[in-house]
Amino acid sequence: MAVWAGAALVTAHAASGGEPGLAVSGRVSSDMRTVRVHLQGTPYTGISRQDGTFTIHNVPPGVYTLEVIDSLSVWPQLEVDVGVRQPGRVQALSARKETLVYPLQLEPLGAANYFEKREGFNLRAMLMNPMVLTMGFSFFSIFLMPQLMKNIDPEALKEMQDAQKQLLGGASAAPPAALEGKSAAPKRGAVST
């Protein structure tokens, strides 16, 4: 549902009756929906009526960010100067710091989108998955590495084995034939022939 924001008139008048701040008033066309108009960083909030008008009472002088809180549309934020540059008046500035003329025209930036569009099939992303990379490395080390070792020159293979022996230490790298030559002590009750 397209939401169209009509004219929004922001005015300020000196509060009467002992109120210390100014009142920020305006009009927001929101298709008969109730929206909130809020000054960021403050407790000051106005709720729009059925005709779209709102008023935020008793706002002390300062510079605030005015935002329209609406679940169906995204609205631009405005900087509102309440009586700082011109005492007793409210000025509204756009995001580009342009002074906005009255009546202020507010239009939503677009409909609020809370969901991301699902991506289609992507072969590269699938192949870069950590699980696929791990499986590929395992395949390489189990099946292809022995094939590569068969094609190595016998002298280079002997040099690699000698280097491994030096890294692992002399005793633990003893060839299995040397261990087979030693006889184990006979077990109890075993008859030697």
TrEMBL record:
Q: Where is this region: Disordered?
A: 168-193
Annotated ER membrane protein complex subunit 7 beta-sandwich domain ranges read: 32-133
Q: Which GO terms describe its molecular function?
A: carbohydrate binding
SUPFAM superfamilies assigned to the protein according to its UniProt record, in alphabetical order: Starch-binding domain-like
Regions of compositional bias (Low complexity) in chain numbering = 168-179
Q: What does the entry list under GO cellular component?
A: EMC complex
What compartments host this protein? Answer: Membrane
**UniProt topology in membrane:** Single-pass membrane protein
**In which domain of life is the source organism classified?**
Eukaryota
- Mark the transmembrane ranges: 127-145
Q: What keywords appear on the UniProt entry? A: Membrane, Signal, Transmembrane, Transmembrane helix
Q: Which family is this protein grouped under?
A: Belongs to the EMC7 family.
Protein name, as recorded: ER membrane protein complex subunit 7 beta-sandwich domain-containing protein
The species this protein was found in: Diacronema lutheri (Unicellular marine alga)
What is the taxonomic lineage of the source species?
Eukaryota, Haptista, Haptophyta, Pavlovophyceae, Pavlovales
